[in-house]
What does this fold into?
Amino acid sequence: MKLVSIQHKTVRLFCFLGLVALALLQFRLVLFEQSEYSQKADLSSLHKYQRNPYLLSWLAKQKHVFDADLSTANSLYQKALKANPVYLPAWLGLAELKLDQHLSQQANAILDYTSLLAKDIKRWRWDKALVANQADRKDILAKDLSFIISEIGGKQKNDALRMAFSVWQDPSELLEILGDENLVSLFRYATSKKKVDEGLVFFQALEIEGIHERKKDVLSFINMLLSMGEVETANTIWDKLLHPNSLFFNGNFSKELLQTAFSWRIGKNKGANWKLTQADDKGEPSSLHLHFNRKNNINLYNIYQIVPLQGGKVYALKGEIKTANLSTDQLPFLEAYGYKCKAPNNKTEMVKSDQPWTNLYLLLEVPEECNAMVIRLRRRKSTYIDNKLAGDIWLANFEIAETGEHFTILDEQ
It folds into this structure.
């Protein structure tokens, strides 16, 4: 309680100091305006503020935006520019003012001049882009947004991308305007905002440069396509990126897990950890080893792989599994179900507490409207008093093959 009280006092002190600072600034500005009105001239420190382009521009902005006093705002901007002829915020504020006065020719002339002043300068570039957008000067806007995206990071870059996608809605035109140097940024933004059509245009351009150098970005794009239900498109790009030679990717666990797209995904589970083991001279295959430490009644559902398959067919999943010292009545098993579609939910029997390497077999019945299935390691919570899962399980040599059978709507019924 004492610590909380001290924290509250500290917060109140900072708030008080902030209010005092604002009051002093306001007092200064009031005196400044009064001196302007009375035309008193002296050598006090107050008149230093009358020659400060920052404060003059700030006050002009207030007069323009909040008081709609365009005449006073114009006078203040002129004084700011007299104090500093190359002070960009004053020029930009003046351009906005001219636009509101419907003096577009003067506003455009100011924008042309500020473009020369701001060449290769990062500061105030976003402010200039906003004014250029307001004036519908797409020639200046394109250069500013391209510069911000390629040279400036953080929030400004994200804002510039959002504006660019809004102004130029044709992705081919957008890429042509912003340039190839911004291709990756455009591709990543389309992926993050789930813009499928735009992302596909940028991916085609990325293919020319070489997608393998952008493997992480392409995998993120594939994952986005999957989340949007674009399974066939995602699978086409997956084949181009990794050229998988089997339906089940990395079924023998000989490669690192990608944790995305059509690869194994293993989420975090309290009371469990995992690692990949390599094949050895004793005949042990490469495998995924899961260890349960008897700390939780685990509801295991986040170890899975999305597998692209052809609808209307029946496939067979084969693999090997080994266990040691598994506890409780609820033990792991494998199941298959449709990805973003309805399909028969087939599953194996639960594994035994202790078993050597044992073959497993699971049918995958894929309806005609499905083009992907999920293969998942599952364990339900136990209702017993002794319900915390302990022990080890190993998975190895997973593969999927067609059975030659067809699965039709009659089979579903």
User: Anything to note?
Assistant: The first strand starts at residue 264 and ends at 266. The radius of gyration is 33 Å.
